[in-house]
Each structure stands twice: as structure tokens, then as C-alpha cells.
Amino acid sequence: MDNMFSAGELAKLQNISKQTLLYYDKIGLFKPSYTDPNNGYRYYSAEQLDYLDTILIMKKIGFPLNEIKRHMKNYTTENSIIFFRNQLNDIENKIYELSLIKSRLEHRCDQIEQIYFKESSKPIISMTNSIHILYNEVEKPYSMKEISIATKKCYAQALSNNLPIFFQCGVSVPLEHIKSGKFSEAKLAFLTTENLPSVSNIKKLNKGLTVSTYHFGNYNNMDISYIKLIQFCKKNNLKIISDSYEFCINDYITSRYEEEFITKIMFYVEVM
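Predicted structure:
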């Protein structure tokens, strides 16, 4: 046919699949100029090429197909400007969000690389800057099941409300549990976050003197690292004045092997 393209020819010309053209026809976005009643072959006119270009460009810009279809029913310069300006705002918001995600992911990678390849389990005394955590309480009997549920609640809240998180979870074990030898009975599960006064379940860990160690391996033998840290405090005349805070440095997000897990255990202390 003169000045007509088959679906295969048009697909090759536009570097798209025939299935894409079929789908666009199905949803009423881009229908063929002529369909052969005998064999069902679709043909497109030369005049339709610019229209298809417009659809593909809008798709590349990021518009959903349903919005493209609605807009192109009767689009003019005036409403196209409004359409594009709205998309620019969406793009700016996505760029800002992605920049935050990028910086937090870089922080997570740097943290894992520094500790996984360089650090030891030797206890460290340091002045820790303030930290904000988004937390949920762990229900009794404080087993791994209840800890996992509380952690999932934190992630669900953060993701559904678009809260800033640093892709790092952790737990807090009460000091009285630790003194009783119940090192794994955490009462809080948390994610590290930023200061958000409007969110009620965010807690600030103040700047202060801390002692910490890195536990390498699974959580079942965490008591070994706790005991070593407690003995270190006694030896160095440090009084533990807080619950413990465990920060997952390397966990199930980055490795399937528990022997590669790294957990930072931290207490606030004061010199006796």
C-alpha cells in the first residue's frame, strides 16, 4: 500500500516491538489507520508517524500511558505547557528523593567497607554524635519472631510515609535484661533516621561518651561480645548508664550468609 506501513515495518522504524503497537491499539492509544478485514493485518499511515513519535517521547519523559492517552485526545500548546510543567515538578521531586537515597546508600556502602575489611572486635571508647531512631516496641517474649515483626513495622511506616531512613536497622536491649544474662531479649526495634518532630515514635540518642564493639557472625552467640564489652568497661572504670543499642552494619540485606553479619553493640557510659 502506498504511504502505508505494516506493523512490522513501523516497529522496526521506531525500534519498538510489534507487541507494543498491538498493546497501544488495544488500549486505544494508537490505532492503525487501516486493518485488513481478511487477515487482520494492521497498517499505519505516514501521517501517523509524528503522532507515534509524540507518544514515545512523552513516555520517555515519564508520563504514564493513561495520562498520555487522556492528554492527546485534544492537546494544544496551552494545555501541553501545563502538562509539561507538572511533569517537571514531579521530576524535581524525584531527583531530590533520589539524591537522598544516593547519599544514604553511599553511607551504608562506606560503613560496610570500612568495617568489613578493616575493623576488629576490639572495644572502642568514643564520643558519639546524636542519632535519631524510628522505633517500634518488641512484644513479649522478645524472641527473634517478635523482633522481626517490630522491624517490619518500622520499614512499613517509613516506606508508606516516605520517611528518610538510612537502610540500617537495629535493636535496643534493656540494661536489666543484660544484667540478667538475657542478651537477645530486645524491647525496641528501630531504623536510623533524621529528626522529624511530627513523628511521635522517633527517639533521639544524645551525643555522649560511648563504648562499642563489633560482633562478627550470627546473633546466636552475641553473648560473647556482650560479656567482652562488659568486662572491658569494668577494667577501664566505665559505668554503663544506658540500654544497649545494636546497629546492623552487615545483615540479611547485604548477605545471605550469617557468618558475614556484622553488628555494632553500643552503650553510653560515664567514667567512675
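Summary: The chain is about 40% helix and 25% strand.
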